[in-house]
TrEMBL record:
UniProt entry tagged with the keyword Chloroplast: no
Organism taxonomic ancestry: Bacteria, Pseudomonadati, Bacteroidota, Sphingobacteriia, Sphingobacteriales
CDD domains named in the record: CMPK
Family indicated by similarity: Belongs to the cytidylate kinase family. Type 1 subfamily.
Protein name (Swiss-Prot/TrEMBL): Cytidylate kinase
Domain Cytidylate kinase as annotated: residue spans: 6-219
GO molecular function: kinase activity
Pfam annotation, one family: Cytidylate_kin
Catalyzed chemical reaction(s): dCMP + ATP = dCDP + ADP; CMP + ATP = CDP + ADP
Taxonomy, superkingdom: Bacteria
EC class: transferase
Length: 222
């Protein structure tokens, strides 16, 4: 129906959102960080002690959660029931629990619905784990990003320590493999490469090279 949808999926810390953001800016598309939505849900669950074995509590929580992604000049603000939680959702505490919360069917159904609504009429770039397989199986372009485990851990470590988080490289590696494992083995929309996705391994590419690679793919399909 006229709009162009770009899905960018991959394991944790492969640089998906950096590429997605740059691409959206370049094309003047809307950028949607689907992981931020799962992180906001996780923060709500943690703050309200929602038990992952209590289906009714989960359902009630989902009904009480309203997430807005507000595009600002150089970042997207994440609002959880009107509160700016952009920084609060990036802590290790949230990262350690987000994959458990994201594996819950009811949570995924609610988020996927919102994500589909966001991309129904607009030109968008959305990054996540199941965008090309589940959220937009008919996306105009699907990119699956990978990078070596060492590169991923180093990037993540640099990101967290820059924010003042006290953490070891070992803890970062553990968290990445923990999330990758849960994300790719869960029953509901597990992380996997869509058959028609183009692989982008960015272990040895700088940001300009990655952007050029995806822009070229877009140009071929527009
Ligand atoms: O992208 P990010 O690493 O911030 O995502 C955090 C977590 O949210 C992932 O590890 C995964 O468990 C979950 N997620 C998901 N589906 C998506 C995006 C993120 O399950 N589309």
């Amino acid at each position: 129906n006229g709009n162009f949808v770009i899905a960018i999926d991959g394991f944790s810390s492969c640089g998906k959102s950096t590429v997605a953001k740059a691409l959206a800016k370049k094309l003047n598309f809307v950028f949607v960080d689907s992981g931020a939505m799962y992180r906001a849900v996780t923060l709500y669950f943690q703050r309200n002690n929602v038990s992952l074995s209590d289906d009714i509590a989960i359902q009630t929580a989902i009904e009480n959660i309203h997430i807005d992604l507000v595009p600002l000049v150089d970042k997207t603000q994440v609002l959880l029931n009107g509160e700016d939680v952009s920084d609060a959702i990036r802590t290790m505490e949230v990262s350690e629990y987000v994959s458990e919360v994201s594996a819950i069917k009811a949570v995924r159904h609610a988020m996927v619905k919102q994500q589909q609504a966001l991309g129904a009429k607009r030109n968008i770039v959305m990054d996540g784990r199941d965008i090309g397989t589940t959220v937009f199986p008919n996306a105009d372009l699907k990119v699956f990003m990978t990078a070596s485990p060492q590169v991923r851990a180093e990037r993540r470590f640099a990101e967290l320590t820059a924010k003042g988080e006290v953490i070891t490289m070992e803890e970062v590696k553990e968290n990445l493999s923990h999330r990758d494992h849960i994300d790719s083995t869960r029953e509901e929309s597990p992380l996997r490469q869509a058959d028609d996705a183009v692989v982008l391994d960015n272990s040895e590419l700088n940001q300009e090279e990655q952007l050029a690679f995806v822009v070229d793919l877009v140009n071929k399909r527009m």
